[in-house]
Amino acid sequence: xxxxxxxxxxxAAMYPSKNIVENAVNSKDHTTLVAAVKxxxxxxxxxxxxxxxxxxxxxxxxxxxxxxxxxxxxxPENKTTLQAVLKYHVVAGDYKxxxxxxxxxxxxxxxxxxxxxxxxxxxxMKGKDVYINDENGNTAKVTIANVNQSNGVIHVIDKVVLPxx
Length: 165
Fold this sequence. Notes:
Blueprint: E1 7-9, E2 12-14, H1 20-24, H2 31-39, H3 43-47, E3 52-57, H4 59-63, H5 69-73, H6 79-87, E4 90-92, H7 97-106, E5 111-114, E6 120-126, E7 129-133, E8 139-149, E9 152-157
Parallel strand pairs: 3-9
Antiparallel strand pairs: 1-2, 3-4, 5-6, 6-7, 7-8, 8-9
């Protein structure tokens, strides 16, 4: 059996043979994201075949939101809003960093990505780093790229991106 090429995220090895949810639950940097995915009933979706490209905000990224935002989003009555926020971090398809870079270069420095939520993320580069902007002008940096999953790829980001309100 071939040894799996793992990437370390949040102190845990991310296995390409496991799906997005199976890997994310082991990252201590993504406990907020996992709690949110569970509260939004998106475990099944993100465990499905995909493929998906997930821009996964860290706990620190969620902590940068205004005080009380996460707690409010996790309330059962705000499930629809939470789903919209989370689906805004997901793009259908398997876009590795190299694919994003190619798209950015082909599109004159900015590539638009349609999210599963229906909104648009704009990918761009500064030096060798890839960034994404949401429709509100917020910018997130990809801090760990190409965390391969059985059903897509995760790119860890340092901010939460939000759909147009």
